[in-house]
Design goal:
The structure holds three protein chains of three kinds. By secondary structure, chain A is mainly alpha-helical. Chain A contains eleven helices and no strands. Chain A has helices at about 1-15, 20, 60-95, 100-110, 115-125, 130-140, 145-160, 160-170, 175-210, 220-230, 235-265. The two termini of chain A are about 20 Å apart. By secondary structure, chain B is an all-alpha fold. Chain B has helices at about 5-30, 35-40, 45-55, 65-75, 90-125, 130-145, 145-160, 170-205, 205-210, 215-240, 240-255, 260-270, 275-300, 305. Chain C is of the alpha+beta class. Chain C folds into three domains: about 1-15 and about 275-485, Dipeptide-binding Protein, domain 3; about 40-50 and about 185-270 and about 485-510, D-Maltodextrin-Binding Protein, domain 2 (3-Layer(aba) Sandwich); about 65-180, Dipeptide-binding Protein, domain 1. Chain C contains 16 helices and 20 strands. In chain C, α9 (about 290-300) packs antiparallel against α11 (about 340-350) and α15 packs antiparallel against α16. Classes of the chains: A mainly alpha, B mainly alpha, C alpha+beta. Chains in contact: A-B, A-C, B-C.
Chain lengths: ~270, ~300, ~525
Amino acid sequence: MALGGGVFVVLLVVTALAAPVIAPHDPVRQSLRARLAAPTLSAADGKAHVLGTDHLGRDVLSRMIHGARVSLLVGFAAVVVGGIVGATLGLLAGFRGGWTDTMIMTLADAQLAFPFILLAIGIIAVLGPSFPTLIVVIGLSGWVTYARVLRSQVLVLRSREFVDAIHALGGSVARVIARHILPNVLSSLVVIATLELARAIVLEATLSFLGLGVQPPTPSWGGMVHEGREYLDSAWWISTAPGIVLMLTSIVVSRTGDWLRDLLDPTLRGE
Amino acid sequence: MHGLLPFLGSRLLRAAVALWLVSTVVFVVMRLSGDPVPLLLPPDAPRSEIFRVRAELGLDRPLPVQYVVFLGNALRGDFGRSIHFRQPAFRVVLGYLPATFELGLTAFVLAALVALPIGVVSAVRRNSPVDQVTMGLALVGQSAPTFFIGILLILVVSLKLGLLPTSGREDWRNLVLPALTLGAFAMASIARLTRSAVLEVLRADYIRTARAKGLSEALVVAKHTLKNAAVPIVTITGLQFGTLLGGAVVTETVFAWPGIGRLAIQSIYNRDYPVVQCTVFLSAVLFIVINFCIDLVYGLLDPRVRSS
Amino acid sequence: MAEMTRRDVLKIAAAGATAALQGVIPSPAHSQGTQKRELVVAQGGDVAQFDPHMSTSSNDIRISFNLFDNLTSRRPDGKLAPGLATEWKLQGQTTWVFKLRQGVKWHNGDPFSSADAKFSIERTYDPNTKMRVNTVFTTVDRIEAPDPATLIIHTKKPDPLLPARLGFYGGQIVPKKYLDAVGPDTFNQKPVGTGPVRFVSWTKDDRVLLEANPDYWGGRVDFDRLIVRALPEMAPRVAALLKGEVDLITQVPPDQGERVKANAGTLVSGALYGGLYVLAVNSKRPPLDNPLVKQALSLAIDRETIVKELWRGRGVVPSGPIAKGDNHFDASLPPLAYDPKEARERLRKAGYKNEEIVIETTAGYMAGDRPMAEAVQAMWRDAGVNAKVELVEYSVRAQKNRDKSFKGLWWSDPTSTLRDPDGMMWRLLGPGGPQDYWRHPEFDELGNAARFSVDEKFRADAYRKMTKLSLEHFPWIPVIQPYEDYGLQKHVEWTPDPLQQLEIRRFNFKFRRA
């Protein structure tokens, strides 16, 4: 299982990196005369449209392969953004306590209290869709889990009082974090990051599906499902091919996260 | 009952602060999103007309003033008049609420009705093909993107098999696909939770005793396990409410379901501030109330919770 | 050929109009008939306003033009016919005298008179009423109603198009007495008109129910009830037609036309849009201030392929900024040319240094806007233009439209409200107009002179010169004049309207009875 998941993710990364080499066609090259062509293995020039063409005559397979770049780039970057923000706020809440803690945790409550996707749509409507906007918005949607884990770890350590002791002896906070906190939470962070990656990829696809993703003609999976929607009854392949890859990615990555959790950190089960 | 009141008090305070934060963020984001007036007027409307409409809507006042007015009115349940519908925003949102309730409730009931028996059967027939297939499907349901589940259902059930309509809201046939789409995640979660809850109970001593007494397997399962499985299901209702609302936004868009999720998206695009603010405020209140009730139930059932 | 046939049908329908007014309907010679007494229409959106002066949106005017009458009536064949006015004439240069129809009753039984007509037109531009059609009658100076059957309109300057203005939105006549009694809010919820159907009820986001006005002066309509349903998504709208749940649907995309045609009981009927789909240009932004660059952009668009493939032939390639079917449309002009080699040449001559040229497109605001933008982008890139597409929301487009802050090009679907260049190119591109991004002294002089001239020969000459100028400077890059396609049950006999009205009066609609 884990091996299969790992292989899948590695394959996906390789596909994304080598997209220009692997893809049989230029993903943005149109051919209006060959639009909505059904999947076929036969081709005059040896370069068949294995998964058919879309409403502008572009090769669906090639767009799908290039789409992996958007999904992974936004996914990984959002996880990093969410992780940095979440970790910082979590550590701050844990160390400072008091008002800081209350404010940060109330912010977390507030964020969980309403559908984040509405806020995401609002922000993207203001700033216009672009890679940085997408990454920051999706990243910010996932900081809470990191913050909670780090905060509780700090609280555990503080309750043991040796943190304060180190402090008293002149040890720096950075040292405490590096020596005592990170090693304890590293496995949790890896698990959370993996699960967050799956969530980020799905959120990016959802926003693209709603027409708020990367700008055309850059292909993304959610955007392709969106574009193919109008042609579901006549050219089903436009939507289904990228949708299935997206679904597989989401399942494999989140299963890998589950598996890592069982392996590394059974205490996270309840989260 | 000792300690329950302070516990509730602090929860209530935090909920109020959360609500205020949510409203403020939405207020700021919506104001930044731009001027709704050009959408209301024909493209050749004179400038004077634009200023007049803006003044009429109170949009010419400084932002802090608008904010104070908004907060004061929101506390009284007044969210202003919808710019697009020219009606009180609260009345507009109330008009769309039943459709979302209908969808959400159906999704949840459907999820429970399907998932409970599946969970029980999977546990009783552990590692059988039935168990493996249903738990495999549950994994798919838990991680597949909502919008794509919807698209697949439309493609297969509506377009290829011609069994159910693709969208709209007329009779029960329109409800099936969106409810399945929205409920997929809850269904999968409930099935998996039920299965593990039942498995745990089956291992317990009193079950073995019951069996030894000669009670039938079915009766044992029915009597003891469902009661125990109910608790995690109640929990998931509360925890997943936010997810469910987020899911409703997507599901309602895919199926053109006239609920508050779709209303919220369209109102963002229309820059209909009052309706967006009212929708978000109401859903946050609902979420907080439901969680509060769950806390309350737990607090009553299990005094240990209060201290945490 | 199919188009020829349809246009012939159209002519016949128009010729039959007078006969139909007297209730003489030629007997149907078709096999597919119906017993229906109820007409069900599905359109792409719900009604927002019933008050006809509060809206110009097509979802609203499809209903308001049937609840109300205008003094003049714009027919689907493009001709102006009598409405509540039976005849009109120009006295001198600026005085129009209208003879009004007698014996007409409002839906609530009140008699219609010239006081209503005077009240209605004044209402549109009265600053206190805040109407959305307040720019329609800016040429009107004052109105007199000397007796119940006569209306006299004085214009500030000669206005040859006044009868045309009265025939479109803003020109619907509303009841003075009822409006004074109930106020605008109630009127907007319970409208009362003189039209062929009466308001019964409205279920928001679902349907409007209307019933036949039995005493209609133009003859009772060929059904008892009219139901207009809102089905915003294309797929369910088409499905409802194919299943026979509705009789008529609006906005059938070209890619769906085959399905509708392939179905035994349904057909597609289209009207050539009374307007154009153009890429409007912000000519103030370099390099778009250079006419050579704009000429190159126009030459690099393969419009024929766009029409043939993306639109499946449901449109025509424009020849200039005047829509086919309008006054002064010059049939001798060739369709706009596609010549990528010449385009490269002009870019070279213009000294184009690969500056980014942005198309800001909406998705779904106009039929095919986004795919067309992407197709044009690819064509421009092939010609060596550094073209970029940016997706914007409707609201952003509206804002940019108002601020005149488009980065380069954007889609516009100018409607020829008067079926005359004055109501389209001059209304939008003229000084101070909503698309005023380019000025040329000769163009402005001609446009102004043509607006206030009652000499049609002079006007024809002016618009010919203005067309020539606009094909050199391209304030608009016209791309297609599409068909507006409707899906019909075969038991429906109805001619679509180029200006998105839903004409269901006796002369234009009937069921084929079984």
